[in-house]
TrEMBL record:
Organism encoding this protein: Algibacter lectus
An MF annotation (GO) of this entry: calcium ion binding
Gene3D superfamilies: EF-hand (1.10.238.10)
Name of the protein this chain belongs to: EF-hand domain-containing protein
Keywords, ordered alphabetically: Membrane, Transmembrane, Transmembrane helix
InterPro entries: EF-hand-dom_pair, EF_Hand_1_Ca_BS, EF_hand_dom
Residues passing through the membrane, by range: 6-25, 71-93
Domain of life (superkingdom): Bacteria
């Protein structure tokens, strides 16, 4: 049971860490692309800077999650994946126990 719980915890932490890393690098990429269209570097795309591509970037920015929001959203997701890993590991352990017991019983019947 300890090994099963350890696998579930490690899986949850790995999923959470990978999610945070993806979110961080995705936000960095977005900020670099936004800076490309922000010609006067004031942090806002003004009417003079407005193009079809810059409109797409600002629309994408409105839908994006910040790192703080993403960190909170990732918690239930990583816990769900950890629970799934726990269930799979637990069931495989039970299958192994049942198979081992059946092999012992079949050997004792032959003797």
């Amino acid at each position: 049971m300890n090994k099963t719980l350890l696998i579930a915890i490690v899986t949850s932490v790995i999923i959470y860490g990978l999610g945070l890393a993806y979110l961080y690098y995705s936000n960095e990429s977005y900020e670099q692309e936004f800076a490309l269209y922000d010609v006067n570097k004031n942090g806002v795309i003004d009417k003079e800077e407005l193009t079809l591509e810059s409109q797409n970037i600002t629309a994408q920015g409105a839908k994006r999650k910040t790192i703080k929001e993403g960190a909170i959203v990732l918690i239930p997701f990583s816990l769900f994946i950890g629970a799934f890993a726990f269930a799979v590991t637990f069931l495989f352990a039970k299958i192994k126990t049942i198979n081992d017991n059946e092999i012992i019983k079949s050997k004792s019947k032959r003797a």
